[in-house]
Specification:
heterodimer; A: 422 residues; FAD/NAD(P)-binding domain; four-stranded parallel beta sheet; 29% helix; 26% strand; globular; B: 119 residues; mainly alpha; 0% strand
């Protein structure tokens, strides 16, 4: 049997719908123009796939302020001492040299949806036929009383890769013997659901070696969290008595901080801390709001191609999007980017558009060679990206399996960063 | 040597090669496991395979093996056999079982046609 294009198309209503959409060709200005804002797991992947698969038929511009991108994923392993910061840094050189992408290192400061241009902080505007926004997250002002961005140098969030992560690690290294570390965990939804708890694990690993009488307190507004059983088992096995997790029953949903005297008020109990990591509530990166494609904190999208529900010529990827069942993760953004790039290429060049399919896996490291993972596959429905199937590591797994899971995560990191940056 | 026997040997050797490149968690005995001839005979749509391949390349690099094996230039039958082994849960890795689990035989054939020579 051969699955040819004709009977393939005959079996897929989604494809038929996509192909019936009007094709956006270059309006008398040469090649069709795709502009991508944000060079992380969503944006870099989308730019690379659009450029690679169109073989030069699309003029791709990637707008990203940083010249060296430090991944937020695996930054916890830096805190734990398993990776150095250099290993998390990636340049855009290959996307420019090997894929012909016009990499613009600047901030996108606005989108004129009528003129179809993106304004840059450095002046000027970049025209587009299709625009992909993949700006990641920003923080909601006032979500943790007493904290704002002016306090991030005292109480770092460390929830965007790079200097904030280095700052948190430096503070932890300088913590006095027997000191207290407090994490203020974020409410749902937020980037990387297991991230705060992997971070707690990695900090515990580091402190166990350098400062074993130190204490870790997590103030958490959520009654349940990702991979909870796995983390709690791991904390009991590796860091017994070191970590205190305070959920909403213990005031974790009623927290304020005072950066001036390094105190954290958790449900009326004032804790004197040495290092405080405030991970505030999150929202879509600001350019999504400026473009007028957000509804509340996030940008709603159509699952079939990640197009904005507010504008069919704008697509929103990754953490910034509101799409349904997928967690906000680098893996998810990368997966969504490929679906989006395929659809955008189809719209701009008339190439074949295949049905959307998505997947995600999140690995977390609890201690040396003790890795766990959770993953799922997803499909596009009319309402949302909907979960199809999934798995999660089990408590009580063998040390060999946990080691293999960790090693698999190393392969994934090498794979996804190669997939993003070429 | 009969052509059929030679072909079987080739598949068996391919499986040995694949087994060696798998993680410890995947080191199951699949030497007596095979895929039906009619499944191996499916001719894959290479262009569809190229699109589907993007799901693989989040973790697998095409030519560089890390802790996760490279998957470009695998013989078509080896690829089909490996993917069906995950789909049928003969091989244990849960990520691969999940990914292969929702691939149809035609989609696996399409991927095999693409990865046999992805250039």
């Amino acid at each position: 049997m051969k699955l040819n294009r004709r009977n393939f198309l005959g079996t897929s209503a989604a494809v038929a719908t996509s192909l019936s959409a009007p094709m956006v060709m270059a309006g008398g200005h040469g090649k069709p123009r795709l502009v991508v804002v944000g060079g992380g797991a969503g944006g870099a992947t989308a730019a690379r796939y659009a450029a690679k698969d169109s073989k030069g038929a699309i003029d791709v511009t990637l707008i990203e302020p940083t010249r060296q991108y430090y991944t937020c994923f695996f930054s916890n392993l830096y805190l734990g001492g398993f990776r150095d910061m250099d290993s998390l840094g990636h340049s855009y050189g290959t996307l420019a040299s090997d894929y012909g992408i016009n990499v613009v290192h600047d901030w996108a400061t606005g989108v004129d949806r009528d003129a179809k241009t993106v304004a840059l902080a450095g002046g000027g505007a970049v025209p587009y036929d299709k625009l992909i926004l993949s700006p990641g997250i920003d923080f909601i002002d006032g979500s943790v009383a007493g904290w704002d961005l002016s306090a991030q140098n005292v109480m770092p969030h460390a929830y965007k890769g790079g200097s904030q992560t280095e700052l948190l690690k430096a503070q932890l290294m300088a913590m006095p013997e027997g000191g207290v570390f407090v994490m203020v965990a974020p409410p749902n939804p937020y980037r990387c659901p297991p991230g705060p708890y992997e971070r707690v694990s990695m900090i515990a690993h580091m402190l166990k070696e350098t400062n074993p009488t130190a204490k870790i307190i997590v103030a958490d507004p959520k009654p349940k969290f990702s991979k909870q059983g796995l983390f709690e088992e791991g904390w009991a096995n590796h860091y017994d008595g070191m970590i205190e997790h305070l959920g909403p029953d213990f005031g974790g949903d009623d927290v304020s901080v005072n950066p001036a005297d390094m105190t954290v008020n958790i449900g009326g109990e004032v804790v004197q801390a040495d290092v405080v990591n405030v991970i505030p509530a999150m929202k879509a990166g600001r350019i999504a709001e400026l473009a007028g494609v957000t509804d509340g904190n996030w940008a709603p999208v159509n699952a079939v191609d990640m197009s904005s529900k507010a504008d069919p010529d704008i697509h929103v990827l990754g953490d910034a999007s509101s799409q349904g069942d997928m967690p906000k993760s680098g893996f998810s953004a990368n997966s969504q980017a490929k679906v989006c790039a395929n659809a955008v290429r189809g719209a701009l060049t008339g190439s074949q558009v295949f049905p959307a399919r998505f997947s995600n896996t999140c690995w977390s490291l609890i201690d040396t060679d003790d890795g766990v993972k959770v993953g799922a596959t997803y499909e596009a429905t009319d309402e949302k990206i909907a979960k199809v199937d999934g798995f999660i590591s089990k408590t009580g797994e063998s040390a060999d399996l946990r080691k293999a899971t960790y090693e698999e995560s190393l392969g994934w990191y090498a794979g996804i960063t190669s997939d993003m940056f070429g | 040597m009969q052509q059929g026997a030679f072909k079987s040997m080739g598949v068996a050797l391919g499986l040995v090669m694949l087994a060696q490149s798998l993680h410890a968690s995947d080191a199951s005995d699949v030497s007596d496991w095979s895929v039906a001839e009619d499944i191996l005979a499916i001719e894959g749509d290479r262009e569809y395979g190229a699109y589907l391949s993007s799901e693989c390349t989040t973790c697998h690099q095409t030519e560089t093996s890390t802790e996760i094996p490279a998957i470009a230039y695998w013989p078509r039958e080896d690829f089909v056999t490996a993917l069906h082994a995950y789909k049928d849960k003969v091989r244990p890795n849960p990520v691969m079982q999940m990914i292969a689990g929702r691939l149809s035989a035609e989609e696996i054939a399409a991927l095999a046609a693409y990865f046999e020579n992805p250039e």
